[in-house]
Amino acid sequence: MGSVTVHSFWTVVMLVVFIGIIVWAWSGKRKKAFDEAARIPLEDGDDAGQGASGEKKHG
Q1: What are φ and ψ of residue 10, in 5° steps?
Q2: pTM exceeds 0.70
Q3: pLDDT one digit per residue (tens) for the chain, 59 residues
Q4: How far apart are CA 18 and CA 15, in angstroms?
Q5: Residue 27 and which of 4, 19, 38, 52 are 20 to 30 A apart at CA?
Q6: What pLDDT, on the 0 to 100 scale, is given for residue 11?
Q7: Euclidean distance between CA atoms 4 and 6, whole angstroms
Q8: How many CA atoms lie within 13 A of 34 on its CB side?
Q9: DSSP 4
């Protein structure tokens, strides 16, 4: 195999990987996880008095 063939093959592989990442990121199954991650900076940073569901514990 010549170097041109190897470079061409590598370019095609990387293009397929890139398209795969785009499809994965924009898939409908990932929307909920990405929406939750987008809300993290907007949430209160004091997690000491909160349970796993984000509700404040009483007493």
Answers
A1: -60, -40
A2: no
A3: 789 999 999 999 999 999 999 999 888 888 888 899 999 999 987 655 555 566 665 65
A4: 5
A5: 52
A6: 97
A7: 5
A8: 8
A9: H
Helix (H, G, I), strand (E, B) or coil at 34: helix
Euclidean distance between the first and final Cα of the chain, in Å?
A: 71
Yes or no: say if 56 and 50 are a contact pair by the CB < 8 Å rule: yes
Angstrom distance (rounded) from CA 59 to CA 31: 36
Tell me the residue length of the chain.
Answer: 59
6 burial class (0-12, 13-18, 19+ CB within 10 angstroms)? exposed
Q: How many CA atoms lie within 13 A of 26 on its CB side?
A: 6
For residue 23, the one-letter residue type is: V
